């Protein structure tokens, strides 16, 4: 049985990917320090897949402990989700972001090298492109678009991509998939796992969900003076379950390379379709069944007009395509939210009552 170590597997995208991995027949080992997740997500994944998930609460920067996990299991490949991801926070504490994201990755790669594990799928981000509208003909954004992140979080992703390219250049046996996610949204159809931000949500749909459930008064729409059909910015929103499946496709691509062949390559994971803030607002209101209060406020610093993926490379090479729609994601997010109004901390939660 192929064994996959999933760093950050208790988090939002990681937990959904663990389900797809187990359902595809992989053995999964999760390593997470729970800095931005709860062990409940793992328990609920176990409930969904009806299997025990091997879990270690370890900070990736603790190479000694991490090494012991590699000593104990014969790991075939790593999916590396672990990292801090809040753009605004990264501008306030950039050193912590570099230490955690870059430091954690270096520690992981060293341990992998020591154990001769050379297959890795890395969570990069569309944020590495920065503002692609500054170039002619780069929307939808192809992987060849020049990068230029505009915040420390994005810099950490680009630095890590660079480290991985250098490792591959030094040893062509490595097989490295750099997956650049666009905007992941939605939740598992069971309503048992989903995104559970701490504090005030930064992202559009988690914020809207909290408005709908009564935890926030209204949505602030950050500007309606952009060059789009309704004046609000355009993003490529992808259902988290489709995104999770993209990891299985990447693993299978790496595994099917010719013997002794290595690779380090970028793939965009998105839908290829752009939606504005109001498109998303209307779709989510439809899922909820009524309009939600909002107010147009000024632009948010750092926001760009359009981040829509060109997905030809992933469609053709990984044989993967996003299938679910924004409406599907809004329905699944609302299902998760109504079942878990306080996220994983919802009191008196009995999984069986919700099936
Ligand atoms: P998340 O915060 O829910 O998951 C990340 C997980 O990593 C958390 O469970 C956290 O506890 C763990 N973690 C962080 N630092 C760690 C460390 N040093 N050691 C061990 N565990 C650690 O985030 P997510 O949305 O699931 O994102 C997963 C990955 O995808 C991240 O690398 C993120 O940067 C990237 N990404 C996310 C988005 C998005 O919008 N959610 C978009 C593009 C890329
Ligand atoms: C989407 C749109 C906002 C909140 C971020 C990261 C990116 C990636 C995905 C990790 C924008 C508008 C939002 C609100 C609003 N993450 N908005 N009111 O900024 O596209 O991407 O998450 O890699 O790196 O930057 O996502 O959900 O924050 O914003 O009007 O309260 O919604 O202006 O147009 P973003 P988002």
TrEMBL record:
Gene Ontology terms describing biological process: galactose metabolic process
Name recorded for this polypeptide: DEBR0S2_20516g1_1
GO MF entries: carbohydrate binding; UDP-glucose 4-epimerase activity
Family: In the C-terminal section; belongs to the aldose epimerase family.
Cofactor: NAD(+)
Residue ranges annotated for the NAD-dependent epimerase/dehydratase domain, each copy included: 4-261
Keyword NAD carried by entry: yes
Keyword annotations of the record: Carbohydrate metabolism, Galactose metabolism, Isomerase, NAD
Transmembrane segments: none
Phylogenetic classification of the source organism: Eukaryota, Fungi, Dikarya, Ascomycota, Saccharomycotina
Any one Gene Ontology cellular component term annotated for this protein: cytosol
Residue stretches in coiled coil: none
Pathway annotation from the record: Carbohydrate metabolism; hexose metabolism; Carbohydrate metabolism; galactose metabolism
Residues represented out of the complete protein: 1 to 355 of 683
Summary of the function given for this chain in its UniProt record: Mutarotase converts alpha-aldose to the beta-anomer. It is active on D-glucose, L-arabinose, D-xylose, D-galactose, maltose and lactose.
Reaction(s) this enzyme catalyzes, per UniProt: UDP-alpha-D-glucose = UDP-alpha-D-galactose
Signal peptide per UniProt: none
